[in-house]
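User: I've been trying to design a sequence by hand for this structure and keep getting stuck. Would you show me what you'd pick, starting by listing the structure so we're on the same page?

Assistant: Good idea, let's start from the same input. This is the structure you sent:
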């Protein structure tokens, strides 16, 4: 052990650097003030004996500084809040403007759709009224034609007895020549055949519709079936079944009311009604509807006589 181990140290305790700097600053300020005063005073001036007490850091107004800092922070926070509110208001205004524009566009679209629908409904109503007017005129025309044909048929029936007696008094040469001629006569049909022909001709101008059975649209077999039904005769609905009825006749020996067919007799694909004078009436196709045509226009494959 050293011989100086029990000797107490006479060194003063160390001071912190901040305290030393503060003391040095205060002391320097005091000495500087004294020096300036000494230099400015007269030579025989008395030495300054008054002690000047320097302010310490503890005496500074920290409360006012803290209040100013707090006020500045509050002002900054209020400004930030005002900017946030203004931004939200601008966003809300932009959103409302977009929604209003969208609502206006939707209202304009609905109004335009309503105007278009109204115009379409008016056009359909006009077209329907015109169609009804044309159909009424067509029905009236067919009714007049039916009445005229029935009157002609009744007149022919009333004169059939006298015609028969007249035919008995004709010469043998006349009967021989008529037998050899083709039976595509131009005389009006009578009896049941007249009713069938009248009905068929009354439908001329009607539309062709597949599966149509009247009263204003037909297909080929639907027209033939309805024409025979008007004379009280039931026929099948299908053209192949209709052409299988009755007896087969030559195209050179046709009579009004005979059923013409195209294709084979048991498998025909089209039928029509022979109306005399080398012509027939049939529901041909969607482009022509019910028409009267010459046999030469579309020569049938054969014919059957059901009456």
């Amino acid at each position: 052990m050293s011989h100086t181990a029990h000797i107490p140290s006479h060194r003063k305790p160390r001071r912190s650097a901040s305290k030393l700097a503060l003391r040095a600053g205060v002391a320097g300020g005091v000495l500087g003030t004294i020096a300036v005063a000494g230099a400015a005073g007269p030579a025989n001036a008395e030495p300054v004996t008054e002690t000047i007490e320097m302010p310490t850091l503890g005496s500074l107004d920290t409360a006012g500084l803290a209040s100013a800092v707090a006020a500045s922070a509050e002002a900054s926070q209020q400004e930030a809040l005002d900017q946030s509110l203004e931004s939200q208001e601008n966003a809300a205004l932009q959103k409302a403007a977009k929604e209003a524009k969208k609502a206006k566009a939707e209202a304009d679209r609905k109004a335009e759709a309503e105007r278009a629908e109204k115009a379409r409904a008016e056009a359909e109503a006009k077209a329907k009224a015109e169609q009804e007017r044309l159909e009424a005129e067509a029905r009236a025309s067919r009714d007049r034609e039916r009445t005229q044909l029935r009157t002609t048929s009744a007149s022919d029936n009333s004169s059939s007895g006298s015609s028969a007696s007249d035919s008995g008094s004709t010469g043998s040469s006349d009967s021989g020549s008529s037998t050899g001629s083709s039976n595509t006569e131009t005389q009006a049909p009578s009896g049941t055949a007249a009713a069938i022909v009248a009905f068929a001709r009354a439908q001329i101008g009607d539309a062709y519709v597949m599966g149509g059975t009247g009263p204003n649209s037909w297909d080929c077999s639907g027209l033939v079936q309805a024409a025979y039904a008007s004379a009280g005769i039931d026929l099948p609905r299908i053209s192949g079944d209709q052409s299988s009825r009755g007896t087969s006749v030559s195209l050179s020996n046709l009579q009004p009311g005979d059923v013409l067919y195209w294709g084979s007799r048991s498998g025909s694909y089209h039928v029509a009604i022979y109306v005399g004078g080398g012509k027939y009436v049939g529901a041909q196709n969607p482009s022509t509807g019910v028409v009267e045509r010459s046999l030469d226009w579309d020569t049938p494959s054969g014919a059957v006589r059901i009456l």
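That's my pick for every position. To get oriented when you compare it with your attempt: Strands lie at 207-208, 217-218, 247-249, 259-263, 268-276, 279-285, 289-294, 302-305. Confidence is low (pLDDT under 50) at residues 159-186.
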